[in-house]
Write a structure and sequence with these properties.
Helices cover about 50% and strands about 10% of the residues. With about 290 residues, it is of the alpha/beta class. Strands 1-2-3-4-5-6-7-8 form an eight-stranded parallel β-barrel, surrounded by seven helices. The termini are far apart. This is Carboxyvinyl-carboxyphosphonate phosphorylmutase.
Length: about 290
């Protein structure tokens, strides 16, 4: 696809060095409301798409084609408001990443986010994450960068290494991915204010930070993030959390039940509303079984 006004707008926003705040959108209504309220950018949340669009937890169950189609819906609704779009791990090896890149480009997104988790991935604020070797993810980045037909389609490289490997490893990976050509770097789930500051000081690239309600990262103010030099702050769960709360309140009023039993306080609780415990039980059932071939 030729470049779009939304892609040029995102580049212009980043050039101002003012913090770009991107609420999480997941369907046509949330995208339209984001545009109508004058937001400068939006973030297609994989967790929100999985839960709202397919009734699934964010544990790698939604496919590349489903996500690309949802991206197209969001772009159509947002118009010239740039969409930063979650593409998980790229949905496979380098050739799969090339196809994902082409699909997201055709959908018109302004930036595509790829991460270094093992597939199937997990929400960045869930426990027990695993990451691939950094060299493997550099192949993912190379495939994405080579495949993009428009240099104004930005590539966001996310590392989830903080949880399994520690902050030093996450920062090392972040700088490697920047050197490999990623336009924006996303270190997922720093665990306190000091870690947020250290990432800003030690990663030499435009930075994205993920502010998840009830997640592992403390919610910093836009002013503080601006002072630290962060480029983008995404708020992926806020709209979906408010919508879910309103639905729960009305449903419990209809049948006179207590809403307290359903209210989530952290991401895992929310994903259990859409069956995460059942899916993880199913996964553990087969994890220890060896495949046999005739």
């Amino acid at each position: 696809m030729a470049t779009t006004p939304a892609r040029l707008r995102l580049r212009d926003l980043l050039d101002t060095r003012e913090l770009v705040i991107a609420p999480g959108v997941f369907d046509g209504l949330s995208a339209h409301l984001t545009k109508r309220t004058g937001q400068t950018a939006a973030y297609m949340t994989g967790a929100g798409v999985a839960a709202s669009g397919f009734g699934l937890p964010d544990i790698g169950l939604v496919t590349a084609s489903e996500m690309a189609e949802r991206a197209r819906v969001l772009v159509d609704a947002l118009g010239d408001v740039p969409l930063i779009a979650d593409a998980d791990t790229g949905y496979g090896g380098p050739m799969n990443v090339v196809r994902t890149m082409r699909s997201y480009d055709a959908a018109g997104v302004a930036a595509i986010q790829l991460e270094d988790q093992v597939f199937p991935k997990r929400c960045g604020h869930l426990p027990d994450k695993q990451v691939v070797d950094a060299a493997v993810f550099e192949q993912t980045l190379a495939a994405a960068l080579d495949a993009r037909p428009d240099e104004n389609l930005l590539v966001v490289a996310r590392t989830d290494a903080r949880a399994p490997l520690g902050l030093d490893a996450a920062i090392e990976r972040a700088n490697r991915y920047a050197q490999a050509g990623a336009d924006i770097i996303f270190v997922e789930a720093p665990q306190d204010a000091a870690e947020i500051e250290r990432i800003a000081a030690e990663v030499d690239a435009p930075l994205l930070i993920n502010l998840v309600l009830g997640g592992m990262t403390p919610i910093e103010s836009a002013a503080r993030l601006q002072d630290l030099g962060y480029a983008i702050a995404i708020h992926p769960g806020n709209l979906l959390a408010q919508a879910s709360l309103a639905m729960l309140q009305h449903l419990c009023e209809l049948n006179g039940t207590d809403i307290a039993a359903h209210l989530p306080s952290r991401p895992a609780d929310f994903f259990n509303l859409v069956g995460m415990a059942d899916w993880l039980k199913l996964d553990s059932t087969y994890a220890g079984k060896d495949a046999s071939w005739a």
